[in-house]
Amino acid sequence: MTPLDRKLRFAYMDHWRIDGPQGHVSQYSSRQLCDQFLKQIAALGFEAIETFDFHLGLFAELFGSLVNARTFLQERGIERVLSLFHAVMYRNGVSQAHDRATHDGLYNHAHQVARSAEGLGVLNLIVMPAGQYYDVEPVSDDKIRACAELWSRVGKMTLDYGIRTCCHHEFYCGIHHAEQIRKFYEWSDPRYVFWYCDTAQHQIAGIDPVDLYRKLHERCGGFHLKDTHHVDQVDDYRQRPESEVTAKTTRRWFWEIGTREGLVDFPALFAAMKEFGYAGWVSVEHDKADIGGGNYPDSTAIAAWYLRNVLQKIYA
Amino acid sequence: MRDQHISATGPIRWGYGFNQWKLGWQGFARLDDNVRALKITSAAGFRHVELSAGTGPWDPLGRPESLAQHFGSVRQFALQLPAWGLGGIPGLFFDPGQLSFEEGHFGLKTTAAADHPLLLQQAAVLGRGLAELGGEYLVLQPLPSYCQIGALDDTTLKTAAQLINALAAANHALGLQTHLHLDALSALRTVEQLDQLLAWCAAPNIGLALDTAELTIAGHDVVDFYRRYHSRITHFHFKDALAVDTLGEYQLPHAERALILAGGSRQIPRWFGELGTGLVDFKALLAAMKEFGYRGWVIVESDRGPQPVSSSVLLNSWYVQNVLNPLLS
After folding, report:
1. How many domains does chain B have?
2. pLDDT average, residue stretch A95-124
3. Among B311, B313, B316, B317, the residue to mutate for chain A (most A Cβ within 10 A)
4. Which residues of A touch B (CB under 8 A)?
5. For chain A, which residues make up each domain, given as ranges?
6. Looking at the predicted structure, is the pLDDT value of residue A3 above 80?
7. CA distance linking residue B124 with residue B137, whole number of Å
8. In a domain, B237, yes or no
9. A305 with B311: Cβ contact below 8 A
């Protein structure tokens, strides 16, 4: 298969951190650290990275401009920053997607990010479409409709910048049960709101991501391929202060694809992607891979190994 | 995923060393950790791995007996390699100076005739296992370190040459080449000594393994070294050197600890680095290798760097893909 025959291109969603003489630091602390990070990602065969929107300022500061930053990436084999994860600071009374009174502020924030991203080649703005479950519950149809209205409005705006708005449902998100997700995509504008399939988040929430992909494949804007060894069975999703990092039951929720204990059926997912003709970018993620002594280079290499040796043989 | 183009079929056959993962006696002893490291090496684009001889129950890939214990047989291990994304095990690194539980010694010397029978017995076990794996060569540390035996004289050098010739003949009978690997601490210090050793070990199945970092630390310009010895150089270990032993501290007692690990009197924090980060001019070396038509394995190594090892493997992979490979086209 030649590169032109391939339907899929692969990106790395960046949670990378480095242990060095200064302790635990971000790879965006210096051009040298950034250089080493990008080379490791590119060496494995990834062609793009995804990162958080709060890194935009760091990129501009390190490289002088985002155009310069993209050149730095491309010189090392990374084509673009494919996606920005829009890190909304959901706060009751100030910024909640289910609270229409706060929509203008949320919209303006997203607008600022979309406008500021020019130069990096960003194609997706990924966002958790509602606040943490305990802030949203009881989750009513009206709250889901409010979220759908906000992100439809934002999605229409981001398309003006060539950026799709993609919603990503953390297992502790106010919209994460199957019926809530169904309603959200029914009530949001399919022209402007896309679904980002985070395999581990849905699995933890008790939803088979393959089934969900089969239902939402027409809305699918991309993937975060990561695995989990645990399903939330005791309503961890509504625990304070943040279920993903402080749940009493589970110290580490997320694992790289390709571990023996993983629960997500990735071969079935790739078979479904093939069946529905998905073409485009697929991202690998292993959020908080360093919990319990792991490290990002190991996890990223194992994920790349699994892609190259197992999943790409199903669909590439 | 983008194609990595780290070929093992061209004039230069790229592979990766497996010496960097072991952490102390009982570290890295689990088979699943070893398999994970092999997968990481494969993911980095290196599908061929040079193993290192090991010993005891803590080194599942270090001895044929260990492979048989874990996989049923050496052959079963070889059959498993494609499932891990690997093409093969071309060779094995063997330092007779390391202790062996199986042979019951705390290190043997090629320069001590009394050690030869046991050393040849050990090498034969490794050689037979390697041949069964489909390997092509054994890399031999041909001489003890200077701190162990002091300056070489003709008698000790000739004793080592006798061992090398006997060991290489046994390897040859198994279809294996023998590559002699000189490191920064070796008792062999001069080109005159090397010329003599090569003259005494003239068989075509015996060649030199040029380790770019070890020789740089020892004060050699590796490009000049290659130009001088290209007709006898049959193998390469590629790693960078971050400093040179300018004070001759290879002579320190227990130099492996005092110089390499502790850094010597200058407290050098790290001697070995990823390709392109240090003193070795790999571009010039590769140009010379092209000029003289080198055909054979080039084994990239990480050695004694900071954790995680995978980071070093990936950075070396990037350098091979983006800096060295374009020079070969």
Report:
1. 1
2. 98
3. B311
4. 3, 10, 19-20, 36, 39-40, 42-47, 76-77, 295, 297-298, 301-302, 304-305, 307-309, 312
5. 3-313
6. no
7. 13
8. yes
9. no
**Per-residue pLDDT tens over the stretch A211-229:** 999 999 999 999 999 999 9
Please name the residue of chain B whose CA is at the shortest distance from the CA of residue A281.
B1
Instruction: For residue A6, give how far its alpha carbon lies from the nearest alpha carbon of chain B (Å).
Output: 9
Tell me the per-residue pLDDT of B80-106, one tens digit each, with 9 for 90 and over.
Answer: 999 999 999 999 999 999 999 999 999
Give a yes or no: residue B321 inside a domain.
Answer: yes
Distance of CA A107 to the CA centre of its chain: 20
Per the structure, the complete domain to which residue B18 belongs is given by 12-328
Which residue from B42, B84, B314 is facing A43, i.e. has the nearest CB?
Answer: B314
Name the residue type at position A234: V
Cβ B1–A307 below 8 Å, yes or no?
yes
Q: Nearest C-alpha of chain B: how many angstroms from A171?
A: 29
Q: Chain A: residue nearest B305 by CA?
A: A20
Residue B91's CB is within 10 A of a number of other CB atoms, namely 27
- CA distances, B213 to each of B6, B238, B306 (Å): 21, 7, 17
pLDDT at A107: 98
Lowest mean pLDDT among A15-24, A127-136, A151-160, B58-67: A15-24
Is A45 close to B4, i.e. CB distance below 8 A? yes
Stretch A155-164: mean pLDDT, rounded?
98
The answer as to whether B7 is a domain residue is no
pTM, rounded to two decimals: 0.96
CA distance A285 to chain B (A): 15
pLDDT digits (tens, 9 = 90+) for B174-222: 999 999 999 999 999 999 999 999 999 999 999 999 999 999 999 999 9
Check CB contact under 8 Å for A298 and B40.
yes
Domain at B130, CATH number: 3.20.20.150
What band does A21 get if pLDDT is binned at 50, 70 and 90? confident
- CATH number belonging to domain A3-313: 3.20.20.150
Q: Which residue has the tokens 């480095």?
A: A18
Closest CA–CA distance from residue A52 to any residue of chain B (Å): 23
CB-CB under 8 Å, B44 with A3: no
Taking contacts as CB-CB distances below 8 angstroms, the residues of chain B near A305 are: 39-40, 42-43, 85
What residues in chain B have per-residue pLDDT under 50?
A: none
pLDDT at A292 over 90: no
From chain B, the residues in CB contact with A45 under 8 A are 1-4, 45
Nearest CA in chain A to B35: A302
Query: pLDDT band at residue A2, thresholds of 50, 70 and 90?
Result: low
Residue B122 is assigned to a structural domain of this protein: yes
Say if residue A275's pLDDT is above 70. yes
Angle, CA of B160, B302 and B36, to the nearest 5°: 115
Q: What percent of chain A has pLDDT over 70?
A: 99
β-strand pairing of B206-211 with B233-238: parallel
For residue B80 the two structure tokens come to: 């498993």
User: CB–CB of B308 and A297 under 8 A?
Assistant: yes
Bridge partners, residue A83, by sequence? A50, A124
Helix intervals (H) in chain B: 31-43, 64-71, 74-80, 116-133, 146-149, 154-173, 191-200, 212-217, 222-229, 255, 282-291, 309-319, 325-328
* Span of A65-74, A235-244, B290-299 with lowest mean pLDDT: A235-244
Q: Distance between terminal CA atoms of chain B?
A: 22
ipTM attached to this prediction: 0.95
The span from the CA of B201 to the CA of B160, in Å, is 10
**Whether A44 and B44 lie within 8 Å, measured CB to CB:** yes
